[in-house]
Structures are given as structure tokens and as C-alpha cells.
Structure prediction request, 326 residues.
Amino acid sequence: MKVVDMHCDTISELLHARERGEEASILENHLHIDLNRMQKGDYLLQNFAMFVHLGKTADPFHYAMKLVDLFYNELEPYSDRIGIVKRWEDIEENQKAGKMSAMLTLEEGGICKGDLSCLRDFYRLGARMMTITWNFPNELGFPNGKDESVSPARSVPDTEHGLTETGIAFVQEMERIGMIIDISHLNDAGIRDIFELTHGPVIASHSNARTLCSHLRNLSDNNIRMIGERGGVIGINYFVGFLEDGGKIGRIEKMVEHMQYIKNLAGIDAIALGSDFDGFGELCELSGAEKMQQLASEMERQGFSSAEIDKVFSLNALRVFRSVLS
Prediction:
């Protein structure tokens, strides 16, 4: 079963390893994802996020550029095994050549410092998807989650603080140039604004259902329905904190339960994969890319048909990529 994964933090983790003086490469490493394990897991395409932590980065734009540089330096030597994609046709050509594909994405709209020229420059460098926020307010909008910067700390969904004027300009420009709008991490008010301001498919690259797990990073029922109605997709996140309240390990069974819930609300076409691999250190039954077929087996056990599994594993995400990147 071919795999398309809409989110991982492997590039950031490789940079952290380098900064610690450790040896690690995209070919083989101690993380969740490397090329050897991707091939064992039957990967078709992996989205690699350039993740920047605003609370730990003095110059987020410069740090993001370091990540982009590492992305290319790591992947280009293995161009016989994996090709970098900027257009839909690149995915098709890589598949015909028997190669995997890699897409450069951005996790934290604050790396652009509110400057549309920076957004367009990241697009020119190959970025084809971006989250509006991570876990901090930025020039574009506000995250959903416990916000210690306000008093009292917010621990309920934020339905009040929508996109800023700059954020509005950004999402409209993203839709114009063909950069996929990713609402994972964004607050409910910002998500509402995006659906009012845009027309094409919107994705949540690595989010689950809030009704099943109350973490604010997960999606409300209404937002799940809106993503489905717009032809977008939701990438199921494997992190235990987004799978079940009080869980100790990311269980495959729970991943499929979130799929079942989203299917009932928005249909099978709204579900994709968004592992968040290398973005969490907690235990997960899917301990690496090579284990992905275990998820397909559990989906089959819980009643998903082969055609439905194909949609979730690759076809739904590919449909959105084709729509936006063609």
C-alpha cells in the first residue's frame, strides 16, 4: 500500500543532531524516518516540514533558510531514490521512474515576518505548503492551545481572535500562487476566517478529532465537516497526546478510531496521513516509517475496504496536491 505522509519534522531533527555534533543523515538515522525505512514502508511521497520554534529562535527567517539548505543538501545526493517535487508532474514523473518524492513544507508562518516577499521567496525555493502558526501568536494569527502569554492562560478553543490583516493577505496570496494552506495549529477563529476568505481545498496536515481527544490542537466537528465540504484532507497524527486523553503510547487502534470518526462526519475522501514523525519523543506503536503497513492491516481489521485504505494512504492527499500544484 503506497504511503503519502503530509507531515514530519525529520529535517529539523537532523539539524539539531548536527548542532550537537552527532552523525545523522536522511539515508540512515536513529529517528522515525530515513530513506531506507521509507522504502521498506512503501512510501510514495513524504512532506518534510521546515519547523521553526519561535520561542527558541532569534532569527526565524534565517533558521528556516538553514533548514531549506539542509533539505536540499541531504536529499540531492540520493536523487536516484527520491526526487524533490515542485509541480504535480514531478510526482508523476518520479513514480514512473520508480522513485519516491519529497515535498518541502513550512511549519510556522512567522518565519516570513509578515512580509509577502518572503512568502514568495520560500515558494521559489520549493515550499508548497505552510501552516499559518505553530504554538505561538505571530504576524498572521493565533494558535489553538494553552496560551501562557494571556491572563488567565487560555485552555478553551479560541473563537475570538481571527487572522490579522497581514494573515488575510497571506492566505489569499498562498491560494493565488499555489501554496497549500495548512490549518494545523491554527485557532478556531483563524480557521473560520480561512474558509470565508478562500475557495480551494484546505488541509490540516497533522490533526485529529477533538471529540475523541480533547487536545485543542485537534479539530472540532464543524471544522472537520468544512474541510470535507471544501475537498480538503486531514492527516491523522500518530502522537499519543492527540490520539487519546491520558494515553501512554500512540496506539494504531486509536489512529483508526479517529479515521472512523472523521469518515462519519466528512466522508472517506477527507482522511489522509500526517504522522508528525520526528516531532514527538513519546512511544508509538508505529515506531518508524518501515512499520506503516501495520496501520493498513488495522484499518482492514476495523472494516475499511481496500479501496478506502488506498484513499487514506495516498489517493486523497494526491488529489489535493494535483488540484493545487497543477
